[in-house]
Structure formats: C-alpha cells, structure tokens
Design a protein that fits this description.
The chain is of the alpha/beta class. The chain has 2 domains: 236 residues, Rossmann fold (3-Layer(aba) Sandwich); 179 residues, no CATH class. The protein has 18 helices and 9 strands. The protein has a 9-stranded mixed sheet with strand order 1-2-3-5-4-6-7-8-9, sandwiched between helices. Helix 1 links the parallel strand 4 and strand 5.
C-alpha cells in the first residue's frame, strides 16, 4: 500500500516503500527498504498508463523531488513515472556514517557497501516492477550512472523492459578504471583550457588562491581543511552547462576587501562567502555513497586500487604547484576520506573497497548483442563525465540502439533542456525520428 498521496501543480505524487533483500543472493537474509515516488499527470491520475522507471545519476544520489509539472518530467507524464531512490539514497534505508556505525567495523561496512552497485539496484527494480506493474515490462530512463544501471538491466533482465532511454549514460563495457580516468584527465584538461579562455583573468586568481592555501591552515565552515588539491576539485562543475560560471562567480568572491575606502587593496583573507561556496561544492555529506563506490562502478573482476590517484601521476600538469593551476574533475582520491567530516569515519571501509578484487561483472556483451529491446541514447560530444569514445563503442553492441550525438548540451542535458531531450529519445526508440 502507498504511504501517502500529495499534489503539486499539475501532478499527483504517491509514495511507496518496498522491502528488498540486502543481498539478492540471500533472499531470506537481511532486508532493507527502497523508496519510490509515483508521479502521474493530475488529469490522468486514474488512467491505465504504461510505467516509466527513472534511474538517477550518481552513484549515491537520490531521485529528484518534483516541484511543478515542468522540465523533462512534463514529457515523462505520458507515462506513470516511478522516481526510485536507489538503495542507500533519499528515503531508502540510508548508507552513511551514522547508519554504518552500527556495523561491527570497517570489514563489515565494506561488505555491506558491496551490495550497493548497479547489479543490486537492478535486482531491486525487478522486484519493484513485478509489484507495481503486475509483471508487465516497463520503460526505463537512465541518466548518467542511471544509464550504467540500465545497461546492466539490458544485460541480465531485458525481458523486463519495454524500451530503454539513456542520457549521458552509455557505460564503458570493457574499459578498466585506469582507462576511464586516463580519458577523463584528458577531457578535463580540455575543459580547463576552455574555462581559462572564457575567463582569462581567473588563471592568476586561481594561482593566488592556491598560493594562499599552500601557506596557511585554511578551514571551511565545517572545520575541515581546504588544501590546494581540494580547491582543485571545483573542476567537477566543468561538466555541467553552467559549471564555468558557477566556479567563476565563486572565485570573484575569494578575497575579502578589507581596505575598501581606505586606499587599500584586497585583503589577505579568504571570504566567508567563498569558503561557504567551496564547501557546498566539495563536501560529500549529502552523497557519501558517491565517494565510497565511485570507482567500484567500473570494477569488474579487479581491484580499482585508487585508480584516479594513480593515473593522476601520469598527468603532471594537474600538480597543485603548476603555474597554471588546473582543476580536476570526477575523481575520488583517498585523501578525501581524511578531510571530509562526513567520510572520515568510513576511511578504512573505503580502503577495503578499493582493494577488493572479486567484483562480479556488470555487463554481458553477448547478451547486449542479442538484445531486442528498442533503445535510444543521447551522447554528448564534449561530455566530461562519460567519454564519447567509450559511449559510442558500447552503443554499437546493441542492435536496436539509436544514438543521438549532439554538442548542443552538456552532461546535464536532460535537466536543462525542458522536454526536448526526452522527447527526442522517445521518438528515436520508436523509429519516429
């Protein structure tokens, strides 16, 4: 039975909770809760509509909370939409420093967290599908990591799918974590060049901030240290449509103007506005699973062993001491677990996950080659998070995949495009575009 029913302009929202096994290999063992929010157009609340499951990006990020009937959701409510809080996120049973503290220690925490990858998320989805659709297949929309999950779905349970839509989510099927991060560093280097071309004055300003951080013990409002490598993490924003502007406007407020009106120049301190803004961008307090499992989403039969940190050594231009400071991107480094207060209690578990070598495979290339589910994917030509070369190679495996390659959008195209991206994907999957 649903928990509650709410209304926002133009939409009826119904909350659902589903009990699922922590390990789908041990269905009689410990269970956790997975939350889903059903969304339907107000005028179609009682209609017999096909279901569309939405899988959010991440890993470790909750599904969106609808405020109005707008954006991609305005197109999606031709279906009965289920916004799934993937296990460990949102209103599903949490997986964070507070909840994991109840376990016996780091080894138990790492073992528990090993059940939060795409394979478990898809197994949850299959249990949920059978409960809400009566066993009928449904359509699935996967954004970014949600697309990675959808590729696993196509590999292991394609008979549960009517059609598949992927936005910036065509995962590398056979590339190692090292391969992924080598491509990512090259892509981030290009994004840095574009950023400094747009805002040439920020080169000297970023270097000045880095020099300031290198000579002082600077703390963010939560008390955690702000080092130069942590400052470089602001480059995570460069893959979003407004990321350059968000970083630029933050840097504008870096230093206090203590001498205003007194003939002085910029003061030597970093402003509270700047430090608060940096904390908002670099803290992973709201998505600890993102840090804990980010490398593991690429792990298949081998340890990742902090691949992003190891590969960084191959790109000395990302040194904190470089004259032209380069910002980094979607990389998780081991020192993050020494600095972020939301992550430090999970430091040892993170190291155990990085050392784990028995991760099962996530994708079945043979199954994908034989998959008959109609599929459509947007591939963003300059995507900073999912490398185009790998995305196109994966798409080529699926016989009924239609690809829309575009440079009109960044990785967040689904969110920023109103209805256009989803509308185009639906038309492509149905052979109408």
């Amino acid at each position: 039975m649903p928990d509650a029913v709410h209304r926002v302009p133009g939409l009826v929202l119904t909350d659902h909770r589903f009990a699922v096994p922590l390990s789908h290999h041990r269905p009689d063992g410990e269970h956790i809760s997975v939350f889903g929010r059903e969304v339907v157009a107000a005028e179609k609340a009682d209609a017999d509509l096909p279901w569309l499951l939405f899988l959010q990006g991440g890993p470790g990020v909750a599904s969106p909370r609808p405020l109005t009937r707008s954006g991609w959701l305005a197109r999606a409510v031709d279906y009965r939409v289920l916004l799934l809080d993937q296990r460990g996120t949102g209103l599903s049973t949490p997986a964070n420093r507070q909840s994991l503290a109840r376990l016996a220690g780091p080894a138990a925490q790492a073992e528990y967290l090993s059940h939060f990858r795409a394979d478990a998320i898809v197994a949850d989805a299959e249990l949920v599908r059978r409960r809400v659709t009566g066993g009928e297949p449904w359509s699935v929309l996967g954004q970014s990591f949600g697309g990675f999950c959808l590729l696993h779905y196509l590999s292991v349970a394609a008979d549960g799918l009517r059609e598949a839509f992927l936005t910036g989510g065509l995962a590398p099927i056979e590339a190692t974590a090292e391969d992924v991060y080598r491509a990512l560093y090259r892509r981030v280097r290009t994004k840095n060049a574009a950023y400094y071309a747009r805002y040439p004055g920020d080169g000297a300003l970023a270097r000045r901030i880095a020099d300031h951080l290198g000579s002082r013990d600077v703390r963010l409002p939560d008390g955690s240290p702000l080092s130069v490598p942590r400052f470089q993490q602001l480059g995570m924003e460069f893959g979003a449509s407004t990321g350059f502007e968000r970083v630029h406007y933050l840097l504008e407020h870096a230093f206090t103007d203590s001498g205003a009106g007194l003939g002085g120049g910029r003061g030597p301190e970093l402003s509270d506005t700047f430090l608060t803004g940096v904390q908002e961008l670099v803290s992973l307090a709201t998505s600890p699973l993102y840090a804990l499992l980010h490398e593991a989403i690429y792990a298949q039969g081998a340890a990742t062993a902090w691949a992003a940190e190891r590969v960084r050594a191959e790109y000395p231009e990302f040194s904190p001491d470089a004259l032209r400071l380069l910002f980094t991107g979607e990389m998780i480094y081991p020192w993050i677990f020494d600095t972020d207060p939301a992550l430090t209690p999970l430091r040892e578990a993170a190291h155990l996950l990085a050392a784990r070598a028995d991760w099962p495979p996530l994708y079945d290339a043979a199954a994908l080659r034989n998959c008959e589910v109609p599929c459509a994917a947007s591939v963003y030509a300059e995507d900073m998070y999912v490398e185009r070369e790998y995305a196109e190679a994966t798409a080529a495996l699926l016989p009924r995949m239609r690809v829309w390659l575009t440079n009109e959008y960044e990785h967040d195209g689904l969110r920023t495009s109103d209805e256009r991206v989803l509308d185009r994907l639906i038309a492509l999957a149905r052979g109408l575009a």
